[in-house]
């Protein structure tokens, strides 16, 4: 073996421990950089560990660097089935709200370009107003008629009782039926009246919006 080769081999042998130590130090440094510290709450207790146990996987936690101690990030807790369903409903509602807002803006633009004045806009509600007014009038008539019929039946039954005679089964059945019909018609009457009031409010709100879009001031006297 030549003298140069001998010196080269000696140099490699001497350098080997140093190179191995450097590689080990590099690996240790890399491992330390990659290692994290996890912190989460278990009831009222705060727990921190460099290993995340299975029971804490779904918990909200913070992650810190072992080397620097700086916060590296965090993970929200896993939602339950019910929470995921609620979130889905909320997202769907938000989408509907946005669609409603977009529709409102398009409607306002159409309102400005379609109707020249308030009288023109009021005509849009004429058919709905007529239908509801007819329903209210019909319900009023039915309630009055059924009440009169019921009063007559009750009077007839009362006369029989005053005369010491029993109320006939047919009379009792007629009274029951008329009373049930009267209750139904009164509910319908109340519903139609509520709908009419709601329509009046809708008309007024639409007119107010129209005036605002047109830049027309509202007369304080109405």
Helix content: 55-70%
Count, helices: 5
**Beta-strand residue fraction:** 5-15%
Q: Characterize the main sheet.
A: 4 strands, antiparallel
Describe the strand arrangement of the main beta sheet, using strand numbers.
2-1-3-4
Protein name: Secreted protein
Keywords: Signal
Signal peptide: 1-23
Q: How would you briefly describe this protein structure?
A:
The chain has helices at 3-34, 81-114, 118-122, 126-162, 169-214, and strands at residues 36-42, 45-49, 61-65, 71-75. With 222 residues, it is α+β, with helices and mostly antiparallel strands.
Task: Give a description of the structure.
- The protein has helices at residues 3-34, 81-114, 118-122, 126-162, 169-214, and strands at residues 36-42, 45-49, 61-65, 71-75.
- The chain is an alpha+beta fold and 222 residues long.
- Among the domains are: 35-78, no CATH class; 115-214.
- It has a four-stranded antiparallel beta sheet.
- Helix 4 (126-162) runs antiparallel to helix 5 (169-214).
- The longest helix is centred in the C-terminal third of the chain and has 46 residues, at 169-214.
- The chain starts with a helix and ends in an 8-residue tail after the last helix.
Question: Can you tag this structure with a few keywords?
Answer:
single chain, alpha+beta, 222 residues, 10% strand, 4-stranded antiparallel β-sheet
